[in-house]
Design a protein that fits this description.
The complex is a heterodimer of chains A (189) and B (187).
Chain A (H helix, E strand, L loop, with lengths): L1 H19 L5 H8 L5 H22 L15 H17 L3 H9 L3 H26 L12 E4 L7 E7 H18 L8
Parallel strand pairs in A: 1-2
Helix pairs in contact in A: 2-4, 3-7, 5-6
Chain B lengths: L3 H18 L7 H14 L4 E3 L7 E3 L2 H15 L4 H18 L6 H5 L2 H7 L3 H22 L3 H10 L3 H21 L7
Antiparallel strand pairs in B: 1-2
The chains are: A mainly alpha (189), B mainly alpha (187).
Amino acid sequence: MEKIILAIIVGGAFGFVLDRVGATNPNYIIHMLRLSKLHLMKTILLGIGFSSVLMFAGILIGLIDVAHMSVKAAYLGVFIGGIILGLGFAISGFCPGTGLTAAATGRKDAWFFILGGLVGAAAYMITYSKVASTGVLDKLLGGKATVAAIDGTNYPSLFDTMSGEVVGIVLGFVFIAIAFILPDQLRKN
Amino acid sequence: MLTWKVGGVLLGAVFLMAVILVKPIGVSTQFVIFDGILWSTVDSSVVVEDANSKSGYASSNAYLNKSGGKYAKSVENPLNYSFVFVVAMLAGAWGSSKLRKSITKEQSEMPEIWRVNFGDSPVKRYVVAFLAGFLVLYGARLAGGCTSGHMMSGMMQTAVSGYIFAAGAFLAGIPAAILVFRKGESE
């Protein structure tokens, strides 16, 4: 029951903030991808950097339980799936989270996106065994790899001798720096 | 709308709060869980209790059955953290939209840049949105996550998979958006 209350609080906050930053508006997402309005890109980069710095700092000083981390496996399908998602993302201006929240804000095209998404997810469920048999789901780099080694986890890492927590903080600052350096647009409207 | 500085800090705070309290944010799996719930409503044999599986549930569908039947378990118990999270996310966005100026009828059908490039037909936009939804969720499931799970939560944790996913999504998404939407709307 406690978990359900947390789900309502964190989920509710996430939906609220997605709408407030403009991510429920497909116009902003399309402009971000065609590099003509980078407001959302800067928002996302700052979000990743800010959370990364504080998360790894929290882990270092023992405020955050490292067991709450959950790293996903690396395999070729991550890249292929990213490409397929990127195409749909570009033509619709929706990703799974923003499609759902956009529908909640009254966008009718988002409901059609969700319907298509449910069919696409079902298609994956049905074709999963075939996809797996091609080998694209075979783990790369030992599977759930991180950039550097994080204490208290079993994640393999690219740079075993470096502190994953410190690298996480440094990369977090890099994301923040990119957010600040990036101009408001790279291409004209 | 928030500036990128305030918005970025708030967005980061939500991702941080999720890790502190429970686990990193992810959305796209719940499309599968919802499909599974619909599927098991019309065919109750899709997910069954199975004492031999790690989660206590098993499915005749290989995808729902993977990782010890953890998706099968969520299908049978929709009142779980990740599913309720997504429902609450909808409520949060709805609440936010009620506190601001609501979108116009024109905006509710399609974004402005679509109208400028492809005209006023809502049906055309809806058909393409449906097809795009298919691609996005098929791709997300193949990748094992989406923009929130792989890109934001992943790169926040220095996950290599997050970087691989972001590379694929932007390598395809940026040229696609530039080629598809030739005209900008505000000249």
